[in-house]
UniProtKB/TrEMBL annotation:
It comes from the Eukaryota. InterPro entries: AAA+_ATPase, ABC1_TM_dom, ABC1_TM_sf, ABC_transporter-like_ATP-bd, ABC_transporter-like_CS, P-loop_NTPase, Type_1_exporter. It is a multi-pass membrane protein. This is ABC transporter B family member 28. Its main location: mitochondrion. It holds the Pfam family ABC_tran.
Amino acid sequence: MMLATSSLPLFSPRSTPTKRYAFSQPPLLHSRASGPHLPIARFPSHLSSSPTTLTATTPVCLAYVSGPASDPIVPSNDDLDSSDIVQHHQLPTPTSAISWGLLWALLVPHKLRLLASFASLLGCSTCTLSMPIFSGRFFEVLIGARPEPLWILLSKVGVLYALEPIFTVMFVVNMNTIWENVMSSLRARIFSSILIRKVEFFDRYKVGELTALLTSDLGSLKSIVSDNISRDRGFRALSEVTGTICLLFVLAPQLAPILAVLMLVVSVLVALYKRSTMNVFKAHGAAQAYIADCVTETFSAIRTVRSFGGEKRQMSMFGDQVQSYQNSGIKLGIFKAFNESLTRIAVYLSLMALYCLGGSKVKAGELSVGTVASFIGYTFTLTFAVQGLVNTFGDLRGAFAATERINSVLSGAEVDEALAYGLRKDIKKKDALDKSFDMFFVSDPDGDNRSKNMSYMSSLKGDSNVQNLARCGDIYLEDVHFSYPLRSDVEILKGLNLVLKCGTVTALVGPSGAGKSTIVQLLARFYEPTSGRITVAGEDLRTFDKSEWARVVSIVNQEPVLFSVSVGENIAYGLPDDYVSKDEVIKAAKAANAHDFIVSLPQGYDTLVGERGGLLSGGQRQRVAIARALLKNSPLLILDEATSALDTVSEQLVQGALNHLMKGRTTLVIAHRLSTVQNADQIALCSDGTIAELGTHSELLDRKGQYASLVGTQRLAFE
Ligand SMILES: Nc1ncnc2c1ncn2[C@@H]1O[C@H](COP(=O)(O)OP(=O)(O)OP(=O)(O)O)[C@@H](O)[C@H]1O
């Protein structure tokens, strides 16, 4: 169904600041699939996971097959040229998500700023390290031990005092700008790298774990520079420690070894002790987080708490947590007090040593008063800088651990190369001018591999019009076997055969756990069959560009997920990459029986729907999802229990909308309530991973098999 396009593109994924319809997320996040699930398909696992197993004699057609080698699905080698064959050997081996090479590649574009940072670091460290020398000279001038006029000395000190903050600003601004840039690119890369993993990756890791990678783990990597560019930390601390020790040796070679070693040892010990108390600080932070969790859980489930009379239990839980927060707070106070004093003790010990040793040297005429005064200044510099350096090493340890976590999560999981390829191709085609994508594709050490792989993937039939094929061709599931990757020992589909005739409605029914939703996942290409194949108009799905296939399938399921934007934007998400006019959105909403309720909302199409569409009723959410699918206008429609959660009135409204949506499309309907699928062109009874019975409602009733007994059971239940 084609919807009229108005000349004014009001609903757009790009920036249209005056309209809420503009998506706030970058278009890369958007899939053309209905709902938030990306139709991720996988690249043949035996190729991408073990690229070295292929030899020059490996048949080219195997590149497209994820099933056994005996089941080649792309018969023609003509689609590939000889360079593709060579490239088979060069598929990327899993590389670390964050590597030194990548960091270097991200830093290189900022080389001028890096140079400026290094120069300003030298400048501010030189100023800082010169100050004690001038303090020493100042005392010598005051007691007449130095002939230099006071005003000349003071003007030199004035210049130093003026330059140091200027160099500091230059250093901090440049370092911060570089690192913010690097971190943005890194964050974007990790995000897109997660986005293009195979679906089983998302089965394996919880959303919270993945969120932590992008927030706290990358946060520790960020703080390695942003928290360490201040005075007495990181590079500055390192340069000050090195510079101070060198100066001590230059100023008083006879005193320096003893003092330097003493100061270093005392400062390092104090810093290490302070570091060891970090756990107490962390425990206090964790106790605070538990309190927040308890509050969130209590108030978000307030109705459940009320209905079970759980107030006392929640109060006791909260009380326990407040108590442990209080205990850790008191403990923390004691440690804080010691930490404060210990730094001073370190300085005092160093000063005492300096007074004793330095004083005796001055008395013996071996050392000038000015030098001892300078040493006093260096005592402070060294103590604080060493402690800062130890803290920086601690931060480094945290950053390495975080990097290792990110790498271990991402390097073990397979990238869905086909999806990645389609995504890049799409972005190249449509968003050449969109700068927000730049940070996702920084040239990196693996770029070579990727370009080879892209060339390889481009041999897929990405340019054939799969939408047209799906509009006029039947869809065949041929001897499909399937096990979920995380439970590969349990076969869910066991040689399933089914034909979805073009433009007709097929109903899939059967007992719970029979594999009905699994068939949907395979049709959507969230997973690929373990063996067997799915074809459209005789062409294997795996020979198509995956992002193209995403446009072919619309799924409306029992619990449609809406995004927390406006109703209009949610409908426009049906075409996430296109400019969608308000007229088109309204037309889709009218066809989905949603227009009337939408205009009665406080802000009409601009009304925000809340988290996951929570501010709408189930039936309203469903009709918005149907409008979204109508706008998408894809040839294959899958309705997975689309009306089962609705009351009778809502169901009628939604059913009307669905009838509109199903017109002229190849439709697969999954339903438990058999009364809703009686009019389907064919009904397939799925049982134990195969199609056990197939026919129209009356044919299956006549057969008196499983379907007939299911119908009987449901009738009995209603009577
Ligand atoms: N992501 C997954 N990983 C591993 N096993 C899964 C996964 N999803 C489903 N399964 C298993 O696959 C089997 C078939 O599930 P499926 O959801 O396809 O059944 P169904 O026929 O749709 O059931 P229902 O009618 O209850 O929705 C079940 O045993 C289920 O536990």
